């Protein structure tokens, strides 16, 4: 994480819309600050000791040692994994654990297996797919973002397989 030289009082977090009353999220909610030598040491919200280090973290309107602001699940140092943290049910969490515990999950439209909330996905209309499953369901050609594909009866088809099917059956395209 980049170290910012700025007075501690200059930083404030905000509530994220749609996250619920118990969830605090902000892309600037964790700030690394330089301790000013002429100021009184601040108390750490994690261990209650004075922060005498050169840098401290400010999150949730409190001050923390770099080692004390950790995810309650995986124990990762939140100042090192990014500038966002989540709180819910009195837990301070990294993004991955927040999504794992409280995120909405669904099933892949191709393989029907569960898609964890933290996993990257591909979408086509209302269907959601694992990245590995986002392929033509006849020839297994993989698609990338921006590639042309067709949906027929909720099946993903490449252009070649779709056009072959058109010739056989005469069905209408849904280009995406």
UniProtKB/TrEMBL annotation:
GO terms for cellular component: nucleus. PROSITE patterns: LIM_DOMAIN_1, LIM_DOMAIN_2. GO terms for biological process: positive regulation of transcription by RNA polymerase II. InterPro entries: LMO_RBTN_TF, Znf_LIM. GO terms for molecular function: DNA-binding transcription factor binding; metal ion binding; transcription coactivator activity. Residues 42-104, 106-168 form the LIM zinc-binding domain. It comes from the Eukaryota. Pfam families: LIM (PF00412). CDD domains: LIM1_LMO1_LMO3, LIM2_LMO1_LMO3. Keywords: LIM domain, Metal-binding, Repeat, Zinc. Signal peptide: none annotated. The keyword Repeat applies. Transmembrane segments: none annotated. The keyword Lyase does not apply. This is LIM domain only protein 3.
